[in-house]
């Protein structure tokens, strides 16, 4: 929980790399390293970066966006709207906010929210993510504040999902420095 503040700001701490309206596209544990101070997270591997604002004007556009997401974004961290892209769907930075919520969950519980080990083999990550169906371990070793922060980012409706500045504001109110 002590690192929640830093990790919630991962996309902002990399503003030079993300300048010009881009999203990282593959925020996950393997793409975040700690700086020399051992505390500050740094986002790495911008090979999946793309323009932040996309619209699937046609079914062909929708399939291209979906295929690109399948190729570039790790399934356990992929926003639900990228699994079955609909015509006229609009995408922005909030796909990275979803991935960041998955990352914080994985940091806390050692598995991503849609890879629940209790679900057993054959459980569908896609169905769980699309339905935003996940649970925290019981008993939860963390405060309700961390659960609230993660749930805020894992809003399944991309139009209701917060932008990163809203995530940072909530983080700062929950974990004042």
How would you explain this protein's 3D organization?
By secondary structure, this protein is mainly alpha-helical. The chain has one domain: Transferase(Phosphotransferase) domain 1 (Transferase(Phosphotransferase), domain 1, Orthogonal Bundle), CATH 1.10.510.10. It is 37% helix and 8% strand. It is built from 7 helices and 6 strands. The strands form 3 sheets. It has a two-stranded antiparallel ribbon. A two-stranded antiparallel ribbon has the order 2-3. A two-stranded antiparallel ribbon has the order 5-6. The longest helix is centred in the middle third of the chain and has 16 residues. The protein is globular, with a radius of gyration of 16 Å. It starts with a helix and ends with a helix. The relative contact order is 0.17. About 4% of the residues have low confidence.
Keyword list:
mainly alpha; 177 residues; single chain; 6 strands; 8% strand
Radius of gyration based on Cα positions: 16 Å
Instruction: Specify the overall morphology.
Output: globular
The oligomeric status of these chains comes to single chain
Helix content estimate? 25-40%
CATH fourth-tier homologous superfamily: Transferase(Phosphotransferase) domain 1
Q: Uncertain runs with pLDDT below 50, 5 residues or more?
A: 13-19
Structural class: mainly alpha
Order of helices and strands: HHEEEEEHEHHHH
**What is the CATH architecture descriptor?**
Orthogonal Bundle
Number of domains: 1
- DSSP, total strands: 6
Task: Specify the number of helices.
Answer: 7
Mean pLDDT: 83
Strand content: 5-15%
User: Mind telling me the CATH class?
Assistant: Mainly Alpha
CATH domain fold name = Transferase(Phosphotransferase), domain 1
